[in-house]
Design goal:
binds D-ribose; alpha/beta; 16% strand; Ribose 5-phosphate Isomerase B, Chain: A; 5 strands
Length: 147
Amino acid sequence: MEIGIAADHGGFELKQFLKAYLTENGHHITDFGAYTLDNQDDYPDFVIPLAQAVAGKELDRGIAVCGSGVGASVAANKVTGVRAALINDHFSAHQGVEDDDINLLCLGGRVTGNMAAKELVDAFLQAKFTEAERHMRRLGKVKALEK
Ligand code: RB5
């Protein structure tokens, strides 16, 4: 899959770990930064370009990491066409795609450990939107806000 990844200083270490893991597993990764650990950097500078690439369909999915994952999800969801969610559990990692068609996973680098993050990312990437009528209907009501 074409996957984009981004993080500020709070998510930097987890991003580096996930980037290596996903590359080893055959995905093509575009890294939107940060490229070095800078405790003064700001998550919108990395997350918004990632979200724009997801919205522009340059990527199949995006992964954004900040300290908690909260700021990343707030910023990403401002970009039209992005459905981002902060995920801390396995069920939501796949159900968020299956029912809600999320296209950008947000994680907290200060919350989620590397091994748990790997499992959340795997569940997110393997899941597919079901396109069930009720989910399409609900998504249509959400997408109407973007017009
Ligand atoms: C940065 O220190 C921290 O506030 C940021 O990574 C994130 O947790 C925001 O939601």
